[in-house]
C-alpha cells in the first residue's frame, strides 16, 4: 500500500514517549503519531492541568494516551517516565525528546544556576531518557527510534542564548554518538534543528524577556523570508516520518528545519 492510506497506518506498531507533549511542538508530534495509527502514546510535562487536557484531547482520537507528570530536569522523573510508560503499554519503541527550557542569558550574565537549568533540562534529561529507552530496546532485542528536538541555535546561537545554544549543540553530538553506538541493534537516533517557531511557549518567552506586544507574531512573520515562523505541524510531520519504518536505515542525521540557511550570507 502506498499513498495517504499507508501513511495513516505507518505507526500502527508505535508505542511512544513524547516529552513536552502537553503543548506546542510536543503535542503536535503526539497528535500526528496518533493520526498515523499509533495505538499508545505517553505525553510528559510539568503542568498537571494542561497535561490532563491534552490527554483527553488525544484519547478522543482513538489511542491509549497516558499523561505522566515529569520534569525532565529531575533524574527520578526521567526514570519514572520510562518505567511507567513500559508498564502501561508493555513496551515502548519510540522516544521524542521535545521538552526544553529557552530562558535567556548572555555569557557574562549567565550564572551557574541558569547554566545548570539548561544542562539539566535540555541535555541531561534527554540523556537519561535515551539511556533507559535504549536499555529497554536492547533487553527486548528489538529496534527503536529516537527523535531529539534540537535548535538552529546549535550552530552557534544568539548572544542571549549562551547556555541554551550550548545545551542543544551538546545534544546534537549526543544524538550522533547514540546513533553510531546502536545502529547494529537497529536503534536509530536523529535530531531536528528547529528554527524560530510559533508556539505558546515562544509567545510566553517573547513577552517575558523581550517585552513583546500582542502583535509580535504578525510583525515577526512579516520579517521572515517565507512570511511565517516555523509551524509545529510542519515539524511534527517530519518527526513522524523519521520515527516510522519509512525512514529505513536513516540515523545520526541532524536536520535543519528552517528558512534560514546556516553559514550562508548575502
Question: Can you give a write-up of this model?
Answer:
The chain is built from 9 helices and 7 strands; from the N terminus they run H-E-H-E-H-E-H-E-H-E-H-E-H-H-H-E. The protein has helices spanning 4-7, 24-35, 48-59, 75-89, 112-140, 162-182, 200-210, 216-222, 232-243, and strands at residues 15-19, 40-45, 64-69, 94-97, 144-149, 187-194, 254-257. Strand 5, helix 6 (162-182) and strand 6 (187-194) form a beta-alpha-beta unit. Helix 2 (24-35) packs across helix 9, helix 4 (75-89) runs parallel beside helix 5 and helix 5 (112-140) packs parallel to helix 6 (162-182). It is globular and about 45 Å long. The relative contact order is 0.14. The model has no long low-confidence stretch (mean pLDDT 94).
Helix content: 40-55%
Instruction: Name the CATH superfamily classification.
Output: NAD(P)-binding Rossmann-like Domain
As laid out across the biggest beta sheet, the strand order is 3-2-1-4-5-6-7
Low-confidence parts? none
Distance between the termini: 45 Å
Order of helices and strands: HEHEHEHEHEHEHHHE
Total number of strands: 7
Q: Using the 3D structure, state the CATH architecture.
A: 3-Layer(aba) Sandwich
Morphology? globular
Largest sheet: 7 strands, parallel
Count of individual helical segments: 9
Strand content: 5-15%
Q: What name does the CATH topology carry? A: Rossmann fold
For the residues shown, what is the average pLDDT? 94
Give Rg in angstroms: 18 Å
User: Helix/strand-derived class?
Assistant: alpha/beta
Any idea how many domains?
Answer: 1
